[in-house]
Design a protein that fits this description.
With 477 residues, the protein is α+β, with helices and mostly antiparallel strands. Helix content is 26%, strand content 24%. The chain contains 14 helices and 21 strands. Strands 14, 15, 16, 17, 18, 19, 20 and 21 form an eight-stranded antiparallel beta sheet that branches. The relative contact order is 0.13. It binds flavin-adenine dinucleotide. The site of flavin-adenine dinucleotide has 34 residues, from strand 5, helix 5 and strand 12.
Length: 477
């Protein structure tokens, strides 16, 4: 890269020029790479999952160490450059990219060290979920991570994190032991329950607001190497029966069983009988991760429904379970969704979800319920910023479509209208990691009673709001 001056977005919304000397100076401090548009690797570095978000930085740093990150943060701060941090790039609001500014693409920091004796994994902040699952599963261990393996460990964890193991072991951040982080002053710090405890509290769910995390340490549990899971589906004509059975199942199921319900149209895939292609159906995504001796009893209520249209339930590697839905959520798709937490499945909600699915005009829509109740409900409300300790389900009204879809605006409108009908059943909290860029779901809703404390921690560690390219928590004044 030739060293030339670069026009960049400033943190206050204006423009500034990073002089060629400043660019040269930054490059000389980096072990990792500095990329400009057109450089090899640029397209991947700035690619994010939601194709609907069109944002591009002017400069990308790909650090390989906490020192690289510290040098970048110091420069951004000194010059007032707008700074973004990209983990896996999956945030639906596109918060990884600083439009016109500088983005730290963490993808080169992806080492995973598993300590089998201590049952801990030390994980580079650029890892995707698959990197961590693969490494921990080699030892028959796992931590709580989500169900699409390309998602970034950093964004998922910093927002709280949920997955098939949540019912057993809580939010991902309930399993977080320690982080290494570069704060706004450019210092590399450790945060844990014993060190910088207020910062650690905020990092357990408070998003990317407090600095650039360079390493996470997770507690691991014995899981796998095989689990019983996959998906099973019934025709939509049986929606009432399936929804009622789901309600009973989720009241009684052992924590080793996670069952998620999705009302959607069946894809034209080889594993779906042709007569169901494009037809509405009720899909249950299942993961039983407990003692095999308890499996049949745990899934009996699912089997008792009988006559599925599709039955892909099987014993298979946990890593398969964690990635088998990857292709259903391809990078670059246009995505819009609205989600809420529920404390229970009220009787009036179920027919509403059925009606929403029946009337939905979006070909690739999902009206979904994720069962998360269990371990997370046993913590105090203020055990970590993540809060939402009353959540037992997440409910989502989700739509996906291709670029250029002529009805995109109508689809968005329909999702919003559906969400407004679901909202009265919700706890009032929601998941920061599922918030779109709209201003009708904001961090204050997601964190509830923990929000003010987050603002105080923000004031202590990032008083100038250097880390603002995120679902932002402004510092307390
Ligand atoms: C298809 C799909 C499936 C999903 N499934 C799940 C699921 O099963 N469970 C679940 O809990 N969530 C799930 N999510 C939500 C997911 O957790 C969020 O989208 C999350 O923000 C993604 O993290 P990321 O690192 O990929 O995203 P990015 O877009 O890269 O980052 C998200 C945010 O985190 C910040 N950030 C990234 N890296 C760092 C860092 N090192 N230090 C500080 N801040 C950082 C960014 O600045 C940004 O604000 C899913 C999302 C998608 C799109």
């Amino acid at each position: 890269m030739t060293t030339i001056a670069i026009d960049m977005a400033r943190i206050d919304g204006g423009l500034m020029t990073l002089t060629s000397e400043q660019v040269k100076e930054l490059r000389s401090r980096l072990e990792g790479a500095l990329l400009r548009p057109g450089d090899e690797g640029w397209d991947d570095a700035v690619l994010i999952w939601n194709g609907m978000v069109a944002k591009t930085p002017a400069l990308v740093v790909q650090p390989v160490s906490a020192r690289d990150v510290a040098a970048t943060v110091k420069l951004a701060r000194q010059c007032g450059v707008l700074l973004g941090i990209k983990g896996g790039g999956h945030n639906i609001a596109g918060t990884a990219i600083a439009e016109g500014g500088l983005t730290l693409d963490m993808s080169r920091m992806c080492d995973v060290i598993v300590d089998t004796e201590a049952k801990l994994a030390r994980v580079g902040a650029g890892c995707r979920l698959q990197d961590v699952d693969r490494a921990t599963q080699e030892q028959g261990l796992a931590t709580v991570l989500g169900f699409i393996s390309e998602v970034g460990i950093a964004g998922l964890t910093l927002g709280g994190g949920l997955g098939y193991l949540t019912r057993r072991f809580g939010w991902s951040v309930d399993n977080l032991q320690e982080v290494e982080i570069v704060t706004a002053d450019g210092e590399v710090r450790t945060a844990s329950r014993d060190e910088n405890a207020d910062l650690f509290w905020a990092l357990r769910g408070g998003g990317g607001n407090f600095g650039v995390v360079t390493r996470f340490t997770f507690r691991l549990h014995e899981v796998g190497p095989t689990v019983f899971g996959g998906l099973i589906a019934w025709p939509f004509a049986r929606a009432d029966e399936v929804l009622a059975a789901y309600r009973t199942l989720t009241t009684e199921a052992p924590r080793e069983l996670s069952a998620w319900l999705v009302l959607m149209r069946a894809p034209a895939e080889p594993f779906v009988p042709p007569e169901y292609h494009g037809e509405r159906c009720c899909v249950m995504v299942v993961c039983y991760s407990g003692d095999p001796a308890g499996k049949d009893a745990a899934i009996a209520p699912i089997r008792e429904l009988g006559d599925p249209a599709v039955d892909l339930l099987q014993e298979w590697p946990y890593t398969m379970q964690q990635s088998f839905l990857d292709e259903s959520e391809p990078k670059g798709i246009h995505a819009y969704w609205k989600t809420e937490y529920l404390a229970d499945l009220s009787e009036d909600l179920l027919p509403l979800l059925r009606d929403l699915a029946a009337d939905c005009p979006i070909p690739e829509a999902q009206i979904g319920l994720l069962h998360v109740g269990g371990a997370l409900n046993e913590h105090d409300w203020d055990d970590g910023a993540v809060g939402n300790r009353d959540a037992r389900f997440a409910v989502g009204v989700n739509g996906l479509w291709e670029s250029g879809e002529p009805d995109a605006e109508a689809f968005r409108h329909w999702i919003r209208a559906g969400w407004k009908r679901v909202r009265p059943f919700a706890t009032g909290g929601n998941y920061i990691n599922f918030q779109t860029a709209d201003d009708d779901q904001v961090p204050a809703d997601a964190y509830g009673k923990n929000y003010e404390r987050l603002q105080r921690v923000k004031a202590a560690y990032d008083p100038d709001n250097v880390f603002r390219v995120n679902r932002n928590i402004p510092p307390a004044s």
